[in-house]
Amino acid sequence: MKLARPDIFHPRIVLAGDSLSAGETAGRVDDAGLIDALRHRGLQARSLSWDDPDVLAADLVILRAAHDDVTRSAGFLAWTQRVPNLLNHPDVVAWNVDERYLRDLEYAGVPTVSGPASDDSVALVFFGGGQSHAFRMAAEGSVVDPDFEIWDLGRSALRAAAERLSIRIDELLYARADVVGPADDARLVSLDLIAPRLGWRRLSAGDRDDAQRRFARAVEAALDRLGLGPLSQRRP
What we know:
alpha/beta, Rossmann fold, 2 domains, four-stranded parallel beta sheet, four-stranded antiparallel beta sheet, DcsG_Biosynth_Enzyme
């Protein structure tokens, strides 16, 4: 593990959760090991409930659990505007929390299908706009290796979302696209840019370590973009 140097600015990172997500308090149980992965990159991180006052003192906040009843509340959306450097960006959250976002994607040419994700849907996970891993949504679903046409559908959804929000695709720290259908007729069921479950527990130990390193590198890139990288500010 990298050791913190006192002469270098170390941004305070919070993984923010909520108390309404079943069986979870200050973050997702599925995120086990994620803080260690960040610390191995020399990044200081901890989990807090999103409404904990200490969250407002963080340098970077990554939303990792948000129950539907919470994200649709005026208080939560107001909080996203107050919290420092929220990822994904508050404008992304506000757009994605409105179910009409699928209509925007459909207008942009992304093939979609209405309704909740079914047990045969596949979740595609992206970090910093790049593909990471995929898994089936069925209970205890397995990790899968989708055809490139399936990944292309997910990337098309991310590009359309980024264009709609006037941001670059790599400004999306994380994204999960749920798709159904065969490679030649795949359709997007949902695109989660708020606090997606990332399927860590479905991966083997080695694959999970690799994926969490990709997540940590995406966090580092975001910090650099925001001028908060560990090497961006040296203390006197």
